[in-house]
Design brief:
The structure is a homodimer. The longest helix of chain A is centred in the middle third of the chain and has 27 residues. Chain A contains eleven helices and eleven strands. Helix content of chain A is 44%, strand content 19%. In chain A, a hairpin with a 5-residue loop joins strand 4 and strand 5. Chain A has two domains: 168 residues, Jelly Rolls (Sandwich), CATH 2.60.120; 87 residues, Arc Repressor Mutant, subunit A, CATH 1.10.10.10. By secondary structure, chain A is of the alpha+beta class. At the A-B interface, helix 4 and helix 6 of A face helix 4 and helix 6 of B. The structure holds a DNA duplex.
DNA sequence: CGGTAATTTGATCCTCGTCAACCTGAGTGG
DNA sequence: CCACTCAGGTTGACGAGGATCAAATTACCG
């Protein structure tokens, strides 16, 4: 079950030793980007500027970690560009992916408020750049701009609902359906007929397995079957959806009469 | 899989028709209780009194609902006494239990901040009494006492971490282990040898199944086996743990050498 | 003492995880 | 430019964990 320790080798590098110290540059960052994030909704231009001034920037190469599970929570991040995978490892070495972060979304914020170390690892899937605010800066911002805390509450609340939904799916639905849902989500697929989309960052069978709670073997079998049916096509680390409505049908568990029709 | 529609009959009664209108009594409630809740931590005595004045009280008989999945989110609740089960129903009619609420904990708060209707149903397991604050009252409180929003953020953050952990467990661990963990959690068990505890509210095999993502049959088999080993004893709707360390060993997946010893 | 709901227990089946082997293609270095 | 390497991917065979189906059996309640 699960990717055991092969990838952990790379992980270890990122966790402790390899990650360089935070570059403490406080140069101003693009405010338009901040304004686009839900966290800073309803902030005035002037306040936005002050928030931007308190931010730092950090980059990570593909495969490197922003922070590791168990690290003490020093800061929260806002992804500027790239893609980040939030994953947990069990004591037994099994890996579970909790979510993928797209630009404009925040990550690492929860333990800043509820205490404790980071409960998961944040890995750059692509070369990624993020703004970050230290624990102290965050506290100051929270005191200065109370609406920001309300925004944060809304964001975290959304995350609870998301996790609850995924929990329910994992508990009640079979693998194929969960994989279909995950692919639609990752591809951000519109369901119009013929509207082909694709996942715009490299992703392996293993990654999808960790995201849906199954094994790379099962994912491989499922994707092969779909490819044969012309629902999608895939190269290594890449998936393109040819018929979103086909994937949608599986995600919604329509009984697919078109397969059993006489 | 899952309790299908038998219980839904009762649910429907609670959902729409049977629930009486909110009794709009604004009588003051016990402040000591409020002070004990994490939500109101760091509030001054005078502020606490004003919060208490804004609260309403509502009671529910065992089996009745505080609110139903899909209802518009009018208020959040703080359980005063009793026990509440938060559950989701899938379109197919399967039921999943997300959490049990103990006195002092809040529920129904998330959608007040992140929008949308209640994502789950809140059912009284015992005769229960709760304080509640309307959406408007909540907004006012949030504006007047910013630290309360920070507290709420910490609580909701905790809930995210909890859901993430349960998600990981469901994805990677087998049933027996999840059941063990659930029982320890529900019994609030200390693990000292010989420290027998019990679950202090009525709970069925079906309930445990919905909490752990399995079927009542499997739960029944597991509990029977444990009972034979003297780990616990159970009557209908009731479980008493005789050897918490035994349950703990299963939850932690110790290879239980004492069974295979020569 | 029925009647009902909770529980137990057996038998069977099926999804999917596990094990194993092999294939493929993108780098890489000589 | 090609052999080599190796991670990612495919596929088959097999079996186990647990879901499903089916009946009893038991406990509680009025």
């Amino acid at each position: 079950m699960w990717r055991m320790l092969p990838r952990s080798g790379a992980l270890c590098l990122c966790f402790g030793t390899k990650r360089e110290a935070f570059p403490e540059m406080a140069r101003p960052i693009d405010e338009g980007l901040l304004a686009g994030s839900r966290l800073f909704a309803r902030l005035e231009g002037r306040d936005l500027r002050r928030v931007a001034e308190a931010a730092h920037i950090v980059s990570r190469a593909a495969g490197a970690a922003f922070f590791g599970q168990g690290d003490s929570a020093r800061a929260f991040y806002l992804l500027i560009e790239g893609r980040v995978r939030i994953a947990q490892v069990t004591p037994e070495g099994h890996q579970v992916t909790l979510r993928y972060i797209a630009p404009g979304q925040i990550f690492g914020a929860v333990p800043l408020f509820s205490g404790g170390p980071y409960p998961a690892t944040a890995l750059a899937v692509l070369k990624s750049r993020a703004a970050w605010w230290s624990r102290e800066a965050t506290r100051l911002l929270a005191e200065t701009y109370p609406p920001m805390v309300v925004n944060a509450l809304a964001i975290v609340g959304h995350r609870v609902q998301e996790m609850q939904d995924r929990y329910r799916e994992l508990a009640t639905e079979r693998v194929e359906r969960r994989v279909a849902r995950a692919i639609l989500h990752l591809a951000g697929a519109r369901t119009e007929i013929g509207a082909r989309t694709e996942i715009d960052f490299p992703i392996s069978r293993q990654d999808i397995a960790e995201l849906t709670g199954t094994t790379l073997h099962t994912v491989s079998r499922i994707l092969s079957a779909w490819e044969q049916q012309g629902i999608l096509e895939s190269r290594r680390m890449h998936i393109r959806v040819l018929r979103p409505e086909g994937v949608r049908a599986i995600a919604d568990d329509l009984k697919r009469e078109d397969e059993t029709r006489m």
